[in-house]
Amino acid sequence: MPNGNIIVTDERGTRVITLRRPGKKNAITQNMYREMSRAIDTAQNNPDIRCMIVTGGSGVFTAGDDIEEFIKADASRPETLSDGAKFLYSLALNVKPIIAAVDGASIGIGTVMLFHCDYVLASNAATFSAPYINLGLVPVGAASLLVPSTMGYQRAFAMLVMGRSFTAAEAHTAGFVNTVVSPGHTEVEARKVAREICRLPAEAVATSRKLLRAPPEELTRRIDQESHLFGERLKSDEAIAAFNAFANRKKR
Ligand SMILES: C/C=C/C(=O)SCCNC(=O)CCNC(=O)[C@H](O)C(C)(C)COP(=O)(O)OP(=O)(O)OC[C@H]1O[C@@H](n2cnc3c(N)ncnc32)[C@H](O)[C@@H]1OP(=O)(O)O
């Protein structure tokens, strides 16, 4: 069932996937993961869809996984969070170019997702972090493979092990943002990039893209390894203390 927090529209060969949960900074629930997976999976064999755009609209990309769901999840049953895991597979197995439009904060899975995308536009108000460490967790989504291979070990260490945030300019220098634009302009620019891609010969795009990317089986193997460790970490004292601190932060 569509939940209203993910809006999917098809526009002249481009599927636009919009996260819309403004009251929660676009934090992603398991339902939202399901909707995003469906949008990506159903594009695979649809010849009318040439590329996709993922956007959070203006002001924020996403605050990452919904931490309230982590708190509610039964740590002995990691499958309660399995839609997130399936979404990572959808990204790894996707064969069509994805353009990301990032305006504002991109946190956790929001940032990891970008390393599976093909073209990333950011506003100069964008920030990028993957602060798994601050929650006592470890990276997911093949981040431990893709992040160092994209921007080098030391920058990856700062992001994934130290939990540092990157500005748009730093992300551009690090190589995972193609273009930095003014706030409020990421979607317009993403549509221009989409039109450019849609004009290219589709089969040659698909084959060239495949040559550039890590093999899907390598990505899914790393996703599985990370997910196993992530499941272990979810039960840890460090993670439980961090989730409770987030839940109680406004009560103090
Ligand atoms: C496997 C993948 C794992 C991950 O993705 S790990 C990363 C998880 N995400 C985070 O650690 C980020 C947590 N959120 C924040 O740090 C902050 O928020 C922001 C910096 C994004 C924004 O701060 P501010 O502008 O002060 O807004 P606000 O009052 O904190 O948030 C507005 C409402 O949004 C809810 N919210 C924000 N992020 C999340 C989240 N990740 N999960 C669940 N809810 C979230 C809040 O609670 C609040 O809601 P209410 O107004 O009802 O109190």
Automatic annotation (TrEMBL):
<dbReference type="Pfam" id="PF00378">
    <property type="entry name" value="ECH_1"/>
</dbReference>
<keyword id="KW-0413">Isomerase</keyword>
<protein>
    <submittedName>
        <fullName>Enoyl-CoA hydratase</fullName>
        <ecNumber>4.2.1.17</ecNumber>
    </submittedName>
</protein>
<keyword id="KW-0456">Lyase</keyword>
<keyword id="KW-0576">Peroxisome</keyword>
<dbReference type="InterPro" id="IPR001753">
    <property type="entry name" value="Enoyl-CoA_hydra/iso"/>
</dbReference>
<dbReference type="InterPro" id="IPR029045">
    <property type="entry name" value="ClpP/crotonase-like_dom_sf"/>
</dbReference>
<dbReference type="InterPro" id="IPR051053">
    <property type="entry name" value="ECH/Chromodomain_protein"/>
</dbReference>
<dbReference type="GO" id="GO:0004300">
    <property type="term" value="F:enoyl-CoA hydratase activity"/>
</dbReference>
